Automatic annotation (TrEMBL):
Belongs to the universal ribosomal protein uS11 family. Keywords: Ribonucleoprotein, Ribosomal protein. This is 37S ribosomal protein S11. It comes from Penicillium brevicompactum. PANTHER family: 40S RIBOSOMAL PROTEIN S14/30S RIBOSOMAL PROTEIN S11. Residues 43-53 have a biased composition (Basic and acidic residues). One of its GO terms (cellular component) is ribonucleoprotein complex.
Length: 234
């Protein structure tokens, strides 16, 4: 169709030709009301780059990181020292000092524990609960629960004593005071096995979770006075 006929048709029927013309999509150019979304995206990208830098370097992402506030012993146990990886001879010396401090005082960065002393003699079993400073809270032997003389030595009296002491600790409300508990054994009598069996049984379910350390303070003689001769029968 020629341009002359097209112009004539447009003049004759303007509405039909206007509908047949191609429409150009309008460009909606809008301006954001705020730039908070762009700031959040930039902050998110910065955080991702910081994490990537921290993973590659093995240390903190930037020097502006604040110290963790933990003690040196806790940081060493977590694998860090003052928020930076251990490097060089100075860090080795520091780690050795921290290890020596842990050997001298293993509870330097935590609250000191209560102590439950288990004295297992061949004739009796005595349980003593003390505060962290050494002041006794409770002390009880097999004679205080009805056993007399030779009946105090044996597995069953020690078992009943251990169960009674653990129930008394719960009834007197001492579990609220005890945060950590250290068990100190002394001697190799029958009460040693009886106490362990009660602690691992149903009677010690409330006290078992508080135990953080088990030590043995059995006396060992180096030299000293002459021992009694061995008893011989027959």
């Amino acid at each position: 169709m020629s341009s002359f006929s097209m112009s004539a048709l447009t003049k004759a029927l303007p509405s039909v030709c206007r509908q047949s013309q191609p429409r150009i999509a309008s460009l909606n150019i809008t301006r954001p009301f705020s730039i908070s979304s762009s700031h959040q995206a930039a902050r998110r990208n910065d955080r991702g780059s910081d994490l990537e830098r921290q993973m590659l370097s093995g240390g903190p992402a930037s020097s502006s990181d604040k110290p963790s506030g933990l003690s040196a012993i806790t940081e060493m146990m977590q694998g860090t020292s003052s928020g930076s990886p251990a490097r060089g001879p100075e860090s080795d010396t520091m780690s050795k000092q921290i290890e020596a401090q842990m050997l001298r005082n293993p509870y330097a960065d935590r609250a000191p524990p209560h102590h439950l002393h288990v004295y297992c003699h061949k004739h009796n079993t005595i349980l003593t609960l003390t505060r962290p400073n050494g002041n006794p809270l409770m002390s009880m032997g097999c004679g205080q629960i009805g056993f007399r003389k030779a009946g105090r030595s044996g597995f069953d009296p020690a078992y009943q004593l251990s169960a009674h002491v653990m129930s008394q600790i719960q009834d007197k409300g001492l579990l609220m005071e005890i945060e950590r508990l250290e068990i100190v054994f002394r001697g190799f009598g029958k009460g040693r096995d009886a106490f362990v069996k009660v602690l691992l049984g149903n009677e010690g379910r409330n006290l078992r979770g508080l135990v953080t350390r088990v030590t043995d303070s059995t006396r060992v003689k180096f030299g000293g006075t002459r021992s009694r001769h061995e008893r011989r029968l027959g």
